[in-house]
Write a structure and sequence with these properties.
Layout: E1 9-10, E2 15-19, E3 22-27, E4 32-36, H1 38-46, H2 53-64, H3 73-86, E5 89-90
Antiparallel strand pairs: 1-5, 2-3, 3-4
Amino acid sequence: MIMENNKPSRKSDILLQEIGNEVFLYDPTKGVLHVLNPTAIFIWNQCDGEHTMTEIEKNMRENFQVTDEIELHSDLMEIVQNFTELGVINE
């Protein structure tokens, strides 16, 4: 389970690829591409093993200009959980 003080980190063999106007994560061990939207790209870049989930949420609010009144936490947790299930970040 992902907690607020977790510092998710990208797996070193996962590559960020831009193909045309699309951005993908490429897992060379599985030969799989995962399409990312702009929010997921931002979160992916924050998963550097240095930022806690709380810091990532704060950075998202600042970057996307999201006020505190808007619930963001569950979306962030869901995206990081999806990254975990896809095997692209370290557990």
